[in-house]
Amino acid sequence: MSPEIKASTEKKIKELMSRYPKKQAAILPVLHLVQRELGYISEDGEKWVADLLGINPVKVREVVTFYSMLSRKPLGKYHIQICSNLTCSLMGAESLIDYVSEKLGIKPGETSEDGKFTLTTVECLGACDQAPSMMINTDYYGNMDKKKIDKILKELDK
Amino acid sequence: MPEKILTKDFDVKHLFKIDEYMKKGGYKTLTRVLKELKPEDVMSEVKAAHLRGRGGAGFPAGVKWGFVPKDVDKPKYLCVNADEGEPGTFKDRYIMTHNPHLLLEGIVMTCFAVGIHTAYIYIRGEYENMAVRLENAISEAEAKGFIGKNILKTGFDLNVTVHRGAGAYICGEETALLESLEGKRGNPRLKPPFPAAVGLFQNPTVINNVETLSNVPCIMEKGADWFVKQGLSEDGGTRLFGVSGKVKKPGVYELPVGTSLKELVYTYAGGIKSGKKLKAVIPGGMSSPILKPDEIDISMDCASLMKADSMLGSGAVIVLDEDVPIIDVLRKVTQFYSHESCGQCTPCRIGNSWINKIVKRIYRGEGKKEDLDKIEKLASNILGRTLCPLGDAAAMPILSIVKKFRKELESFIKG
Questions:
Q1: pTM, whole model, 2 decimals?
Q2: ipTM score of the complex?
């Protein structure tokens, strides 16, 4: 069964592919688009991308399992990623991870039952000047503390 | 305050828009370069400027360009390394957010110098918003005729594409970046051949860091001599030092190459937070060997830090105060490399995961007497025995931490 990819996304994917001398080179941008649309990279999604790029599905699986931003499990509506690297940890990230985990009732790597939140830890986000830092979907949040987290989660839970 | 080069206009509102950038003189130098100079003029100017790579290895950019064969029939490529994954580093994000056109102007000049017509900006996946900003900047530059076909009616063509990574530290290593761009797992390649000869899609390729390329416009505007004078004779210009951790004012500081690390920490970054004492400084991103307080009276340039058995790396300074247990630092360092090893070379894949397990054991209070020796042995066995520099990047900081903080580490081991 082929996944439901919008016609507009397919058009964008075709444009992307034209930017490389070999189709396979477009795999990461294409997978980003597929993941955004489907919430994750399903097996059908892998096959669809393989067909599109003219490669064996195992080549897509190899890529999906290598990169930490690509997920083979459905992600929540809000993907919270908290940096657990050195600078952020120095500034208190570990206790924040525990705090969010407790608040949402999920461990890092898990998604809440209602599909609303996924919590993961992440290596350096390149925002050490605002440590501890985190991302929700594509947005950065810096200088985090429990109070700020309460406010953000409350906002998202509306 | 010393003169700023890259960040001088960063307080201009909406500098990321082409009109504001051009009001500040942006793309003027490009016009002169393309209309009045030959490609070899640009290459020799950048060589004379002693512009060293700002990504980590510190290799002179002009020399790197010179390795690309001139009269080949194959297409040549520029890959801009915007992967910025070295823990502690956030300076390229700062450039791309505030002044994407400066980078683009540097890209066009570089491609003109080397005879390149296709450039890819490989940007880390998490920098989604910066990628969008860059794409908008490219569209603006195309509309004004600075990028695209027949640039400024000089006959020079250049396509620039933003390519997002997907969360893998290893893809900042140049040959892993190429593999990733070709649509594969980011496993580094065996060198030689070097990318200058056999790179992207097996063609000659230049790979430069964002900050490195952003220096090219001012070198072409003000000349190599001026640029060298801003820094040191063999290491020209300024560096964007990113200071983070236990300092009063974390942030990016653009200062001359050769600024003292002590001055950077105490004067510019405001000194240690809450009146605490300094414990140690990691001077050039997590991969660089740690320095104790009596070692930070040092000039921040590639050669001086190498002499001190550390490295300038990406210029990312992480500051630790007296309250930070060194076992926490070692735990984070080893966690990172065991997670980010691509798995291709056994010493790095297995070694880093074993070291991390031993460190976690010590952290839990279950350390054994021989553990520190074991860590040293494992790390020494990674050193120099891997395809790419990630192995060394992991082993070096681990060895330096165990050596310089052995007593404290022993205190965590009871039995």
A1: 0.97
A2: 0.96
